[in-house]
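To whoever is on call:

I kicked off a structure prediction for a single chain this morning and the downstream step that reads the tokens threw a length-mismatch warning. I double-checked the sequence; it's 228 residues and nothing unusual in it as far as I can see. Pasting both halves so you can look.
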Amino acid sequence: MNVMVIMHDPAEGPGTIEDYLLFKKVDIHTVRLYDHDLLPQALDDYGAIITMGGPMNAYEDEKYPFLRDEANFLKLTIDRGVPVLGICLGAQMIARSCGASVYKSSQKEVGWSEVSLTDTGKKDMLFRGFSETLPVFQWHEDTFELPVGGQLLATSSTGLNQAFRYSNAYGLQFHVEVTPRILSDWFGSSPEGEKLIRHLKKREVDFVRQALSLYSNFVGVVKTQGWS
């Protein structure tokens, strides 16, 4: 299986997603939009698309023209039924490509928190085997409306949409892929960064196990849809 990973910024890589795919001997094609890589026009070679986070806003087309290209690409991908997984900005880009609004949230979320699966989320294949609440890492100032026809899979005490499904596309507002190194790249040696990294190291085994379960479930979705 070939998987395309879309990156918007060098500091927002796939983390444990890449670790999992390499372990499973999945071929990864990384498109670095920040390096002016072009999105392919042919989709036949890919079993799934994974689009990562980034520091920009999903609606900053004038500053980041590649966002418009990505939105069009994701719409085509979703219309074709190719499974897609979006993380943070990637989730917002999926929502945008499906016609939903992405906008500044009244509540910025940074740090460790919990999200709760909805009744629909508990039944969805992506969260098969998960408990009702999930520890996750957050870093976003925007939020999104649920696309028409989309299903809300997870929310939080803030009331913000945290995970959704639209056709074969999944959007996660939170981060499941982070590692101590990624957090160090994001926060440097700041006291807050060191605190967040300590928190992860104490729970890293469980956090990674949770992430690997999600990736495995997503691959299950891919195979179920015949895109292996």
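Update from on-call: the warning came from a stale cache, not from the record. Cleared it. Sanity check on the structure: The radius of gyration is 16 Å.
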